[in-house]
Structure formats: structure tokens, C-alpha cells
Write a structure and sequence with these properties.
Layout: H1 8-11, H2 24-27, H3 32-39, E1 45-48, H4 55-65, E2 69-74, H5 80-88, E3 99-104, H6 111-122, E4 126-132, H7 136-139, H8 142-145, E5 149-152, H9 158-176, E6 180-182, H10 186-192, H11 198-210, E7 213-214, E8 220-222, H12 224-231, H13 243-257, H14 261-273, H15 278-292, H16 299-313, H17 319-331, H18 337-350, H19 409-424
Parallel strand pairs: 1-4, 1-5, 2-3, 3-4, 6-8
Antiparallel strand pairs: 7-8
Helix pairs in contact: 5-6, 9-10, 9-11, 10-12, 11-12, 13-14, 13-15, 14-17, 15-16, 15-17, 16-17
Length: 427
């Protein structure tokens, strides 16, 4: 078996849009990016989406159609000097029609570096095609965004990846002049365990090919066992510092809030598989207060106990108390009355609505001639039901209501008790 220098994924890189795997929502017949490519006039573009979904490939194909000098920079390594060198190309003869800059991983450029490009993008001397794995609306300078068209690249469906893998097998057979046989399930398993990343799938297939055995007929056989091993850690797309992390965290929280324990357990499993228990622990504590809250106040100490146990145990046993906490919160009654109340109170404070503390609540330090402190404060425990009517809010906020009792059993019981206190209260 020969080992060609270029990785299989690079040898298979498409040269025409019709060969690109997936992305039919932007590259299919009649779709916008396809029509832009066919027009031959390339505007400033930003591609964002996960790795292995075709951003770089499509950018290279479009660059060939532009009729301009092509320059390529990577945001992880380029400097301001590199950017200025590209701009200098616009004054040369080969840059007379303008320069097309393909800037990979633009999110790694700081604001000043991005601003360096702005003038030349605006007057057309530089056409920008940028790619990023992060949300450009958070990481790309707004002035560049406003001059660019943004396209989202989505994870590739397993069915499309299966087609790409079948093409990869044919390429191996052609390059190596050998017949490749695969055990049942190899293609399907790799395609469904690469998180929509075609490059990752092809790399896994290449590893399996390198480990393949020769049968009695001279065929190379790729085993399902090798495929299971090569792709077992490929399925969970996770970057603790990237958008994927926050998207999974958001989905986890919303699934618990929505009382869908099956979805919530799925997202918890993705954290556990990535070795991250800190993120779900923090979020479970927040959910107990924010989304269950006063509908079941005991949820807070119960979840705290589960989190403490998980942190004490560590993985793999930590999955047990965390799963218990997820199922418990999903099946618990829900109330957001607490967070609504504090949010309204904070809004008033931040808008300058505060005022002086009522006189009856002030702790006076002066004494009268007989040694007693003059005060209008009514000590609640001296009254029936330990409750007395008096003003607690500043005059500017008198009568303001922040907390509204939720419609769950616990809060309705508290509401009934409050109404009884008021009805029986002394003035």
C-alpha cells in the first residue's frame, strides 16, 4: 500500500460548486450564492459555520471565477504587515483589476487589523471572502459586516456524507490501483458519527484504509470494528471556548425549562462525553433558581446536593447525580416569578428610581430625654400573625409591585396566606 503525500480530504476537494457536499440551501439551483457565482461578479462575502462544511472549498471556487489576483491569509497567523502587503498588491500591474483576498478564520483578527482593510474594501480595490467558525455578528467588525453578505454553512447531513465517502473509496481504488471491500455498516457509521463534518469523515475513512487487511483475493478490507474505533470520538462537535459550546448550553437550558427530559439528557450526555461537568453543574444551579424557583423552592438545595456529589465523584460517576438533577428539574413544576421580580426591580434602580429610605425604617441614633429612641417603625412580631401594615418602599416607588404570584400550587398557597394576613392586619 503506497502512502500518497496529500491527505485524502485534500485530494478530494471539489473544484466546481456542483461537487460540493451539502449546503443545498445556498448552493442549490436557483439559490443566492449559486447565482452570485454564476454571475461572475463576486461581492464581499463572509462564510460562517462549523469546520468541514465546505467554507474554504467554496471560497476557493469563487476566487477562481473572480478574474482578480488571489491572495490568501489565515487569521490565526497573519499580522497587520501581512494585510498591508496584500493592499500593496493593488498598485501592481497584476492587481489592476483589484485583489481578491481570501481570509480564513477572520475572527482571530483584532479590530485594528480588520479596520486596515476597510478603506480598500469600500472602494473595491480589495474584494473580501472571509470564513469563520464563529458567529460573525459577534466577532467581525460591524463596518466590514455592513459591506459584506453573510452566508451560513450548516453541518452536512449523513446522507450527503455517505455520498462523499463512496467517492472517497473510488478515489482510493483509483490512486492505489486496488479493490476496496467494506464490511456492512462502515460507511453509515462514519457518516453518522462525524457531526456533519465531511473532512472529519473522510479522515476517519482514510485511517480505516491505512489499517485495512488484505483478503485471499487481493482486496483491501475495511472492517466495521476499525470504523467504530476511528469514529467513536468524532460525533461530538464541541469546543469549550467556541459557539458550539454556548449553543449546546443554551439547548440544554431550554430543554429543561421546556420539561423535555429526553432532550436535556441528550445535551447533558454531550457535555459528559467531552469531559465537561462544570458547565452543566453551573447551569443546573441557575435553572433551579430561574425556571423552577418558587414553584418548588426545595429544588435549589436538592440540585445543589446533586452538583456537589458530581464534583466530588468526578467522571464517570458524576453522570449519575447530574442525570438525576436533570430529570428532577424537567419533571418539577415551573415558575419564573422570581427572575421577573428582580429584573423589574433592577430596571427601576438602573433608571434612577430609588428615593430616600422611609423615615419609619431608619435606625435613629438620637435619644429623647427619657432615654428612648424616637421611631415610627412598627415591629411586626408585636402584631397579630406577625404582620402589620406600614410603608417599606421609598415614596417615589410607593405601591410598586415587582413580584406576582405564579399560578403553581406552592405560590398560590403563599398568595392565599398573604391575603389572609392583609385581611386580618392591624393598622
Amino acid at each position: 500500500m503506497s502512502l500518497l503525500s496529500a491527505p485524502l480530504a485534500d485530494r478530494l476537494r471539489p473544484t466546481e460548486l456542483s461537487e460540493v457536499c451539502g449546503q443545498k440551501h445556498i448552493l442549490g439551483e436557483g439559490k443566492l450564492l449559486r447565482k452570485i457565482a454564476e454571475s461572475g461578479v463576486i461581492p464581499n462575502l463572509i462564510f460562517f459555520g462549523p469546520s468541514g462544511t465546505g467554507k474554504t472549498t467554496v471560497a476557493r471556487i469563487l476566487a477562481k471565477k473572480a478574474g482578480k489576483k488571489l491572495c490568501h491569509l489565515n487569521g490565526t497567523s497573519c499580522s497587520t504587515a501581512d494585510i498591508k502587503e496584500v493592499i500593496a498588491e493593488t498598485t501592481g500591474l497584476d492587481g489592476a483589476n483589484g485583489v481578491l483576498l481570501y481570509l480564513d478564520e477572520i475572527q482571530y483578527l483584532n479590530k485594528k487589523q480588520q479596520q486596515t482593510l476597510l478603506e480598500f474594501i469600500e472602494d473595491g480595490r480589495v474584494t473580501l471572502i472571509a470564513s469563520t467558525t464563529e458567529n460573525p455578528y459577534f466577532y467581525v467588525y460591524n463596518a466590514i459586516l455592513s459591506r459584506s453578505t453573510v452566508f451560513e454553512f450548516k453541518p452536512i447531513e449523513p446522507e450527503d456524507i455517505e455520498i462523499a465517502l463512496e467517492h472517497a473509496v473510488k478515489r482510493i481504488e483509483h490512486d492505489e490501483n486496488v479493490s476496496v471491500l467494506m464490511e456492512d455498516g462502515v460507511i453509515a457509521h462514519i457518516a453518522r458519527n462525524c457531526s456533519g463534518d465531511a473532512r472529519k469523515a473522510i479522515n476517519a475513512l482514510e485511517v480505516c484504509w491505512l489499517a485495512s487487511r488484505m483478503d485471499n483475493d487481493g482486496n483491501r478490507v475495511i472492517s466495521l470494528e476499525d470504523a467504530l474505533t476511528a469514529a467513536q470520538r468524532s460525533s461530538n462537535r464541541y469546543d469549550r471556548d467556541g459557539d458550539d459550546h454556548y449553543e449546546i448550553l443554551s439547548a440544554f437550558h431550554k430543554s429543561v425549562r421546556g420539561s423535555d427530559e429526553n432532550a436535556a439528557l441528550h445535551y447533558l450526555a454531550r457535555f459528559i462525553d467531552a469531559g465537561d461537568i462544570i458547565s452543566p453543574c453551573r447551569r443546573l444551579l441557575a435553572i433551579a433558581c430561574e425556571d423552577v424557583g418558587l414553584a418548588y423552592p426545595q429544588a435549589i438545595p436538592i440540585v445543589k446536593a446533586c452538583v456537589d456529589t458530581a464534583l466530588q465523584l468526578g467522571l464517570p460517576e458524576a453522570q449519575l447525580p447530574l442525570a438525576d438533577a436533570v430529570i428532577f428539574l424537567c419533571t418539577a413544576p415551573k415558575s419564573n416569578s422570581g427572575i421577573l421580580a428582580i429584573s423589574e426591580a433592577l430596571e427601576d434602580v438602573r433608571n434612577g428610581l430609588s428615593g430616600n429610605v422611609p423615615e419609619n425604617l431608619i435606625n435613629l441614633h438620637t435619644k429623647t430625654a427619657d432615654g428612648h429612641k424616637p421611631t415610627k417603625y412598627k415591629y411586626a412580631h408585636n402584631y397579630r400573625n406577625h404582620y402589620v401594615k406600614q410603608q417599606y418602599l421609598p415614596d417615589t416607588l410607593k405601591g410598586r409591585v415587582y413580584y406576582r404570584f405564579g399560578d403553581n400550587k406552592t405560590e398560590q398557597a403563599a398568595k392565599a396566606y398573604r391575603e389572609k394576613l392583609i385581611a386580618e392586619a392591624e393598622e
